[in-house]
Design goal:
four-stranded antiparallel β-sheet; single chain; 2 domains; alpha/beta; Aspartate Aminotransferase, domain 2; 38% helix; seven-stranded mixed β-sheet; lyase; PyrdxlP-dep_Trfase
């Protein structure tokens, strides 16, 4: 099956499988906040309209300043981008023709970006039997001779959060090897206490942290992300960044969203409770469900050969999950599901129950 390599845009999934799309669908392939954007967005939408008439600040100075203050950094340690995707490609551009290691399973965009710049890419593939956790001795061995290592934490697609000491061991070793470590924290704020390695930036010049603002604040259509790192690295990325790549609306939404601490706390509480409820229900239906720390999780029918059939069955019922065919280490063995609203989750559980009855 030639399936899309990303979630969202479900019409392309139905088109690829030659299936008729139901009139009503729920897209569980999208990992944005099920509670939606903060309330201010609707309240202030009229005023925000005025931003479309003028060019944006090419340096996004106000947004970067707010991020820097929030993280206890200087403004020149922050760079915003047109979504995390632009920033991934910018980082990859620094490693043209060099060697990179990706800790997998992982977001396919890393490999795509690196290959587009002629990088030699290797994968360190985590194993399900080890709980998809890092094995530092093995990883350190794989790291030798690499110029860049990419780690997604919390991980997409597993939802697993790695042991902080294990990550620091990798970063410390990479520092001695003169290897840059990029930690993608796109989903860190969905986990309790929002675990991050940002406080370690003063200790490691070889560390860069990637963040997204579109997931937590449900503004994926706007496209906004940022990176945190040392000044020299940020300046190199800034020199390669297209002028005006972050539009005025995105900048102002980002500034306002970063002050929405209550929205984040409310989301974390909802996600934890609803994820545990849904996973418990799936367990009771004899599905294998991977324990997750964020707003999505992996699930599979214990009849593994029927995963494709389950995927298509759910599509026929208007439940769009994320296939895992292009995640190395998974190769389609699981489906990834986002945590949605209670009503939407119940609709999915109803269909999973129906499928179980047909097995």
């Amino acid at each position: 099956m030639n399936l899309p390599s990303h979630g969202s845009n479900p019409q392309y999934v139905y088109e690829a499988l030659k299936l008729k799309q139901p009139d009503k669908i729920v897209d569980f392939s999208v990992n944005t906040n099920p509670l939606g954007p903060p309330d201010f967005l609707k309240d202030q939408w009229g005023a925000l309209f005025e931003l479309v008439t003028d060019y944006p600040d090419p340096l996004a100075s106000e947004l970067r300043s707010v991020i820097a203050d929030k993280e206890g950094l200087n403004i020149d340690q922050v760079l915003s981008g047109n979504g995390a995707a632009e920033l991934i490609f910018l980082v990859a551009s620094l490693f043209h023709g060099k060697k990179a290691l990706i800790v997998s399973p992982a977001f396919s965009e890393y490999e795509q970006a690196l290959l587009s710049y002629g990088c030699e890419v290797e994968e360190y593939i985590l194993e399900e039997k080890n709980g998809w956790q890092l094995d530092p001795p093995v990883l350190l061995k794989a790291l030798k001779g690499k110029d860049l290592v990419v780690i997604c934490n919390p991980n997409n697609p597993t939802g697993i959060m790695y042991d902080k000491n294990h990550i620091l061991e990798v970063i410390s070793y990479a520092k001695d090897q003169k290897t840059l470590v990029m930690i993608d924290e796109a989903f860190y704020d969905f986990a309790e206490n929002s675990p991050t390695l940002a406080a370690e930036l003063p200790n490691y010049q070889n560390l860069i942290i990637l963040r997204s603002l579109t997931k937590m604040y449900a503004i994926a259509g706007v496209r906004l992300g940022y990176v945190l790192g040392n000044r020299d690295l940020i300046h190199k990325l800034e020199d390669r960044k297209p002028h005006w790549s972050v539009n005025s609306l995105a900048q102002q939404l980002g500034i306002r969203c970063l002050h929405e601490a209550n929205h984040v706390r409310k989301t974390q509480q909802f996600i934890k409770a609803e994820r545990e409820r849904v996973q418990s229900s799936l367990h009771s239906l004899s599905y294998s469900v991977l324990k997750s720390n964020v707003n999505f999780f992996l699930v599979k029918d214990l009849h593994q050969h029927r995963t494709d059939q389950l995927y298509q069955f759910l599509l026929s019922k208007g439940i769009v999950t994320r296939h895992t065919r292009n995640f190395k280490g998974l190769e389609g063995s699981h489906l990834r599901m986002a945590v949605k609203t209670r009503e939407e989750n119940d609709r999915m559980l109803e269909q999973m129950k129906e499928w179980r009855g047909e097995c």
